[in-house]
Amino acid sequence: MLKQVCSFELSIECQYNYQVVVKFDMPSTCNVSHLIVDLVTHIGLEAEQHGGGSEVLVRAWDSPAARQITLNPPKKNSTGDLYEDGLCILIFEPLIGSDYSEIEFIKRGSFSLKELEALISALKVAGEKDVKGSSGKGKKNTPRKGSGQRSKHIPSMEKIISDLEAMGVRVYGFDETSSIPMDGTVIWENLAGYEPQKREIEDTILLALQSPEVYDDIARGTRCKFETNRPRAVLFEGPPGTGKTSSARVIAKQAGVPLLYVPLEVVMSKYYGESERLLGSVFSLANDLPDGGIIFLDEVDSFASARDSEMHEVTRRILSVILRQIDGFEQDRRVVVIAATNRKEDLDPALISRFDSIICFGLPDQQTRMEIAAQYAKHLTKSELLQFSSATEEMSGRDIRDVCQQAERHWASKLIRGQVPKDEKGEPSLPPIDEYVSCAEQRRKSWPDRTRWTSRSPALKLA
Ligand SMILES: Nc1ncnc2c1ncn2[C@@H]1O[C@H](COP(=O)(O)OP(=O)(O)O)[C@@H](O)[C@H]1O
Ligand SMILES: [Mg+2]
């Protein structure tokens, strides 16, 4: 029935958690305020006095990603939960170059007769021409923040950073005017080995951030319609502790732009609609940064796993925000998304297809393990480092660092207890190779199953 009244593309999905989602593209001629009044009129209780109007409990959120409203008839609300049973409506901004907004109706359980009537009416309204708008009397779509209108007031860098920090986003690589100073340890030299990965990162991300004009000039010369050719999203894939986060920090520092680290717990909010709103704000604020920035989405598999797996509704919405934001990056901005994952196989294919490059951080080979060990145990001889690298097979850079730290602590406690002698000058001696090897063995014993990582090739794979 719904499809009959609709002159444009309509999709109806029933999700595993008994949610029905009806969505369609709204032509830009649609008058959104008219649509909302129409929905409320259909769903609300008719107000007894004065004849006109309807009563309905409305909650609304506005974010750069979507406008969201939930409508509940007032009677139903005795539970105190405003939106558990309500009809949720999401209106997504048109993407750059699109004449359509997307509207989604989400309902847990089934749609009531009233709600179905409201939907049919909404479809009709969406298809109508906005007479007021076309006659030039009223202005239809007011420009919204983050929607591509650069005439808006852009807040200062400090304000943007403090807004991001207030949301739980960690901002790295900002200069001394910031509350978070530059970290002197964030340099490639502190990340031993991984030369092909470093080179690939520099080629794909750094150069485009440092010299965007070169890329844009080429695109202007080659494209009929200008469209940026700069990379927008890159995936770092590999086991934990192999230097993905460290690499993102180095690149941000080299490019002289802030790295916006979005921790998982910030994204996975328990409040309905909050996660998408937050993520949308992060993208919007990043777009406002004068020299751009890097948005780092760590553990992206946790909120962007494949659609066909039993995924939570929140996950689906977050993924949809990420996809839209990557697609809709403003052309004149220098914003790059770096996503990191331990489980690329679990990622949604739609997300994987957005990445301009996939950089694989495998577990370090023996030579790299020696180089990493040399960073954390510089007093060991070459042959001792070789011995240590054999004892740390299948370990990541982080494991090796932790083993070294453990060896130092053990040795310190032995010195303090007088169990081992000081050196010939009476100074505390340094831990010998045996201490490192025994700590590595201890760590290996306490390992969880690691077969997933070891079955992989440590070599660099690039997409
Ligand atoms: N190649 C390496 N050389 C030196 N230290 C390393 C290396 N790889 C990892 N580490 C150490 O492990 C820590 C954690 O690495 P990180 O970048 O957080 O890994 P990931 O993001 O892949 O989990 C780093 O801060 C660093 O101390
Ligand atoms: Mg990490």
Automatic annotation (TrEMBL):
Q: Which family does it belong to?
A: Belongs to the AAA ATPase family.
Q: Does the keyword Nucleotide-binding apply?
A: yes
| Residue ranges with Basic and acidic residues bias | 441-452
Ranges in a coiled coil:
none
Enumerate the GO terms in the molecular function aspect.
ATP binding; ATP hydrolysis activity
Annotated region Disordered: where? 130-153, 441-463
InterPro entries the UniProt entry points to: 26S_Proteasome_ATPase, AAA+_ATPase, ATPase_AAA_core, ATPase_AAA_CS, P-loop_NTPase
Protein name according to UniProt: AAA+ ATPase domain-containing protein
Xref: Pfam families: AAA
The organism's place on the tree of life at top rank: Eukaryota
GO annotation, cellular component aspect = proteasome complex
The UniProt keywords, alphabetically, are: ATP-binding, Nucleotide-binding
Which residues are in the AAA+ ATPase domain? 230-365
Organism, as annotated: Panicum hallii
